[in-house]
């Protein structure tokens, strides 16, 4: 990639390392598209792991170099990093460390670019005190600003594309769930079937939950996208291995393994289910926009630090529920994250699912009253570039 192939820098650029899961690139890809589609900006997204990114963005398959997808300029991030002119706003996602050459190029611009470190999402209260803080670079005339997503007005908010909730509502009004089920070969389900999606990390105790479902009163359709939980699903069904397309039945549970899809199709899966198991950061947020009951498998951290994040979110999410429903949600979420037995926690949760379903809609409406993350970030950067804005 030469500088001459790119005469002008874009308005914004985002740097992302994929790490070992899809969350970081999932967030960056969504943010980049929202900045282009909802805000009319030109955006370049640098990604280190092209192959992993192609799982979320199938249009990338077969391309080895720079390519535009959905209006976003996608560039492979390799070393040595090319000498390119930086954008006016440079987003370093999740502390991924910008290339030294690029930092120098940023410092050499007549007006220093706005340098943003996009942080991980947390519901903890300390986030409001840290959101927006700046930290000067020790040598270069640059300031890195820490931008925190979050659940209240004094944070950066949550990613929510402009037309997302209207699209979800249209999907539901037009029988999208029935169409989705029909297209996937599930058109003869009993009316009381609980349709469940499960995107999760390893879950050693899963067999206990599957047995409870298998011997339960109501049928369960379990839809599992390919991923880390699949080996535990296979063990629970006493099956040597599973892959996309596998279908099995055990008692009242029907299992289908789904291929990993692009993000829009994953949203439609979430919109079609009665209960969504989600993980990490981005699917966790999308389940909230689906406005259905969900269970969060939080990304495990050293020293169990993730439990503070889990409890902080539970405290917010459960505050509008009655005591029985709040305790059932908290009990099941803790068990799903390794603290408690899944089978008893399930029977408590099952009993209050209708209340949680109603609450999920109220929760989603409350969150959607906040400004979304891309809009907040744009406003924050505009203000640094021109404090009169
Ligand atoms: O992949 P994750 O576990 O990501 C995690 C977290 O983001 C965590 O904070 C981070 O530290 C760690 O990675 C490294 O889960 P998450 O965040 O839900 O990301 C998954 C992405 O994959 C999300 O954008 C939804 C998307 N997805 C699809 O596009 N298609 C699919 O079929 C599925 C199942 C998911």
Describe this structure in words.
The protein is an alpha/beta fold and 389 residues long. The chain has 2 domains: 12-158 and 371-385; 164-368, Glycogen Phosphorylase B (Rossmann fold), CATH 3.40.50.2000. The chain is built from 14 helices and 14 strands. β7 and β8 (143-147) form a beta hairpin. α6 packs across α9, α11 runs antiparallel to α12 (323-336) and α12 crosses α13 (342-368). 40% of the residues are buried. Bound molecules: 2'-deoxy-thymidine-beta-L-rhamnose. 2'-deoxy-thymidine-beta-L-rhamnose is lined by residues 19-24, 26, 56, 120, 199, 225, 260-263, 266, 279-284, 299.
Question: Can you tag this structure with a few keywords?
Answer:
389 residues, alpha/beta, Rossmann fold, 2 domains, 8-stranded mixed beta sheet, 6-stranded mixed beta sheet, 14 helices, 14 strands, 17% strand, binds 2'-deoxy-thymidine-beta-L-rhamnose
Radius of gyration: 22 Å
Biggest sheet: strands side by side, in what order? 3-4-2-1-5-6-8-7
Strand content: 15-25%
Overall average pLDDT: 95
Distinct bound molecules: 2'-deoxy-thymidine-beta-L-rhamnose
List the helices and strands and how they pair.
Layout: E1 12-16, H1 23-37, E2 43-47, H2 50-56, E3 67-69, E4 72-76, E5 89-93, H3 100-107, E6 114-118, H4 127-130, E7 134-136, E8 143-147, H5 164-173, H6 176-183, E9 194-198, H7 206-214, E10 220-225, H8 230-236, E11 247-250, E12 253-258, H9 263-272, E13 275-279, H10 282-290, E14 294-297, H11 306-318, H12 323-336, H13 342-368, H14 373-385
Parallel strand pairs: 1-2, 1-5, 2-4, 5-6, 6-8, 9-10, 9-13, 10-12, 13-14
Antiparallel strand pairs: 3-4, 7-8, 11-12
Bound molecules: 2'-deoxy-thymidine-beta-L-rhamnose (TRH).
């Amino acid at each position: 990639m030469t500088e001459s192939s790119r005469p002008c820098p874009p308005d914004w650029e985002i740097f992302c390392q994929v790490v070992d899961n899809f969350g970081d690139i999932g967030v960056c890809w969504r943010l980049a598209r929202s900045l282009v589609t909802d805000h009319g900006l030109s955006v370049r997204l640098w990604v280190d792991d092209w192959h992993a990114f192609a799982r979320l963005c199938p249009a990338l398959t077969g391309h080895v170099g720079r390519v535009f997808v959905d209006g976003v300029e996608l560039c492979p991030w390799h070393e040595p990093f090319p000498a390119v002119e930086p954008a006016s706003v440079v987003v370093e996602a999740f502390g991924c460390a910008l290339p030294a050459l690029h930092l120098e190029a940023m410092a050499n611009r007549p007006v220093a670019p706005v340098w943003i470190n996009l942080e991980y999402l947390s519901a903890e209260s300390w986030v409001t005190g840290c959101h927006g803080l700046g930290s000067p670079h020790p040598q270069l005339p640059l300031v890195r600003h820490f931008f925190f997503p979050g659940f209240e007005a004094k944070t950066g908010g949550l990613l929510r594309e402009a037309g997302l909730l209207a699209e979800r509502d249209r999907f539901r009004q037009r029988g999208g769930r029935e169409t989705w089920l029909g297209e996937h070969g599930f058109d003869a389900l009993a009316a009381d079937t609980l349709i469940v999606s499960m995107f999760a990390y390893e879950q050693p105790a899963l067999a206990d939950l599957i047995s409870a479902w298998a011997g339960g009163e109501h049928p369960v359709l379990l839809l599992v996208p390919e991923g880390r939980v699949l080996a535990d699903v296979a063990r629970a069904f006493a099956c040597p291995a599973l892959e996309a397309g596998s279908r099995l039945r055990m008692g009242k549970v029907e299992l289908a393994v789904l291929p990993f899809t692009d993000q829009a199709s994953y949203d439609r899966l979430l919109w079609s289910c009665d209960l969504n198991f989600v993980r990490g950061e981005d699917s966790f947020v999308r389940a909230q926009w689906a406005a259905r009951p969900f269970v969060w498998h939080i990304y495990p951290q050293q020293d169990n630090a993730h439990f503070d994040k889990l409890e902080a979110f539970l405290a917010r999410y459960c505050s509008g529920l009655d005591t029985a429903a709040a305790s059932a949600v908290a009990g099941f979420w803790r068990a799903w994250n390794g603290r408690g037995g899944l089978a008893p926690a399930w029977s408590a949760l099952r009993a209050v699912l209708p209340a949680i379903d109603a609450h999920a809609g109220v929760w989603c409406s409350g969150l959607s009253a906040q400004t979304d993350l891309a809009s907040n970030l744009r406003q924050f950067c505009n203000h640094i570039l021109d404090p009169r804005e």
